[in-house]
Amino acid sequence: MGLNIPMSLSLKSVEGEAQFIFYVMWSLLIVTLMVVIGIEKSKLGFGLRCICQNESAADMIGVNSTLYKSLAFGFSGIFVAMAGVIYAGWVHYIEPPDVYDILYSVKPIVMALLGGLGSTLGAVMGAFLFLGIEEFVWRNLLNLHTGVLGLLIVVLLLFLPKGLVSFGSSWLGKRLIRQNGGSRD
Amino acid sequence: MENDSFAKMEAHVTELLKLNNLSRRFGGLQALENVSLSIGEGEVVGLIGPNGAGKTTLVNVITGVHTATGGQVLYQGKDITRYKPYETARIGLARTFQIVQPFPDLTVLDNVTAAAIFSRSGFSIRQAQEFAQEQLEFVGLFPQANLPAASLTLAMRKRLELAKTLAMRPKLLFLDEVNAGLNSAEVEQAMSLIKKIAATGTTIVLIEHLIKVVVTVCSRIVVLHNGQLISEGDPRQVVNDPKVVEAYLGKRYSQAAKDHLKNAEVSLD
What we know:
The structure holds two protein chains of two kinds. By secondary structure, chain A is an all-alpha fold. Helices cover about 75% and strands about 0% of the residues of chain A. A two-stranded antiparallel sheet of chain A has the order 1-2. Chain A starts with a strand and ends in a 6-residue tail after the last helix. In chain B, the strands form two sheets. Chain B has a six-stranded mixed sheet, with helices on both faces. The two termini of chain B are about 30 Å apart.
C-alpha cells in the first residue's frame, strides 16, 4: 500500500534533485517566516494575541474570535501541507504509517516549547536546536531516542515554560521598565 | 418657563435602546422575566437591585454574551436580540466587566489600542494608538501606558476598563460596578470620570450598589429584583419606593421605613 510519485521531469541526477528540493524547502521556510511575521504585525496577529490572553474580553471589544481562530487554524495547516507536498516529491513514495506518525505532531510542539511559545523567533530557534539535539541523540543513543524526547518535554515545561526566548525578553523587560523611570519603585 | 423647555427636551430625546419583554432562563432559574425598558439618547440610567437580581445577566443578554430565551432587544430601532458580542461591540455598545478583564500581558496602551482597532473599522494601528493615548490621558493612566496591564492596582484596572470602553467610541455604555472594591477617594475619582463621560453625550447605564453614587449621577433609576423590573423613575422617589426597600431589606424594614418617612414628613411640616 502506498502511493508512488513520479520522478521530477527535468532533474535526471539524484544529486540535482536533492539540491532542487533543498532550495525549495529553504524558500518555503523563508516564505513561511515572512507570512508569520506579517501576521504578527497585522490586525489579525493583534487580535489573536488578545484572544490568547482573554477570549471573552476580546469578544467584548469587537474581535470576531471564531473567524480569527479559524484563520489561525487554516494558516497553521497551509505551510505544513506545502512542506508535505515537497517531502512527497523528495521521497517519491508515501505511505500512511510513514507520514502519519504521531511524532510528527509532537515534534513541532516540542520545537515551539523549546524556543518559546508565542514567539516567531523562538519557533525558528527551537526548530533548529531541536533538530541538532535529535540528530545527536539519534546518532549516539538510538534506542533511547524517544525517551530522551519525552524527558526533554518534561524538563522544558518544568524549568523553561517560556522557552529560550524568555532569557532575552526578561532582559529586555527589565531594561524597558528602567527606561520608563521605574515608575513601579 | 423652565418646565416648558424641559418638556421640549423630553420630546427631543430619541430612543436608543428598547427592551420588549426580555427573558432569560438558565435551566430552572428565571434570571430575567419580561423586562421591558426604554433608554433614550444621552440618558444616565442607574440599574440597581439586590445581589442576584439579574443586573449583570441583563447586560449580558443585551450585549449578546447570553442569548435571550424570550423577548426582543431593539437598538436604534433595529432588532439585535441574536447579535454576538463582537457584533454588538461594533454597533456602539460597550461594557466594563464587574470582574476586570484586561489582557494581562499586553501593555496598558495596547489594551486600549486593541479596543479602538477592533470595535470599529477605519483605524490604522497608528491612529488607534494615538486615539488610545487620548483615552488614557482622559482616565489618568497615561504615566502607566507602557506597563503590562497585570501590574496595575485594582483602581487602575477599573480605569483601564473605562479607557478600553471609551476607545470603542460607544453610543451606549454599560458600567458594571465600576466602584466595587474601591476606597472612597477612588470612588470620588471614578464618579467625576463618569460625569465627564456623560457630559460628552454618551448614554450610560450604571450598575451600582452605592446608592449615593446612583442618586447623584443618574437621571433615572431602574430597579431589578428576582429578574423583574419592580420600580422605575426619579432617583429619590425610587429609593424611597416601599417595594424597593422591601426588595433590599425585607417587609419588616420596609414598614419601618414607611413609618419613618411619615414621621419625617410630619416634622417637615
